[in-house]
Specification:
It contains 16 helices and 13 strands. By secondary structure, the chain is an alpha+beta fold. The longest helix has 25 residues, at about 220-240. It binds zinc ion.
Amino acid sequence: MDLSVESGRVDVWAEHPRLTRFTCPKCDQVLPVYDHTEERTFRHLDSCAFLTYLHARPPRVECPTHGVLQVALPWAEPMSRFTVLFERLAIDVLKECDVEGARKLLRLSWDETWHLMDQAVKRGLAAKPHVVPAKVGVDEKSAGRGQSYITVVSNLDTDTVEYLADERRQASLDGFFEKFSTEERKGIAAVAMDMWDPYINSTRQHLEDANDKIVFDRYHLMKYMTGAVDTVRKQENRALLASDNKTLAGTKYLWLYSKENLPERHQDRFATLRGADLKTARAWAIKESPRHFWSYKRRGWAEKHWYFWATHSRLQPVIDAAHTLKRHEAGLMSYFTNRVSNAGAEGPNSRIQAIRVSARGYRNREHFKTAIWFHLGGLQLYPAIP
Ligand SMILES: [Zn+2]
């Protein structure tokens, strides 16, 4: 053992008694030492705040069946430059910090820290059980600057990420379904998603009764309708300003609130606006109405009442949005039979946002994916203690 106060480190050399016999790593046959490899160094848990390194020349055995092989070391996984105990600590720290924070606490380089995270994910993915999720959520996530996306498939019962793929194409989702046999896919009962044709097509191609299983998120319905109201407001505001009428100027955000979320300080002004003879006010009233859609138990309500109202509104953006929703009606109504949603506050979806926010240093899409697997994959990340 060597202790250096100046460099703040402890170095420990491990040896074995003469004539010790070791087992072949493949067949457990007990054999004499054949020779030793070059010395290897392993970072271990600190001793009294000193960086601690373990050094050893691993023995090799000559198995009659498997040839000359290095024996398994009781303190590290094959090829690792860290002891198992250090790797487990690193995983615990990485779970609580981003890579940069973990790097500082562990006194490693960024690349070493990243490597430990990456290895943990590889280990976890290799051990991941093959399970067919019953309730599936599909979502697209922007992976940083530019139009770069990833497709995220989660298990909505366990709130874990089950599959990641590049882009948001049909092929991106195909890869998920193709992990399972036709028989296994029957176990998928519901797929919650955005109204995104590539995902819809992929699901239709891989699931029987896809139309009964696809569920569009209520959040997305509101997104379409809110967009339509905003377009009506922009057009109307422009027309009004042309005749020097500033009624709608600066009101953008008032119309984006839902009725019950409008802050009190805006309520008087908004009541006046709603009472005025404005196209925007009409569009807003139509938008607010289908929000009650989900409290209706009976199917067909949307078509009979709301859809008629919307398509006869003479407001083109509202009519367009209504047609979009009409085309996807089956998926919207599926919510009544499959009450699944991607938008849960505790679900992987919102947590992915948090990972991206803290993702200083996830330098590319692959890194972002690895971080999602690490934090949300429900994986067994630790190396086993020998
Ligand atoms: Zn052997």
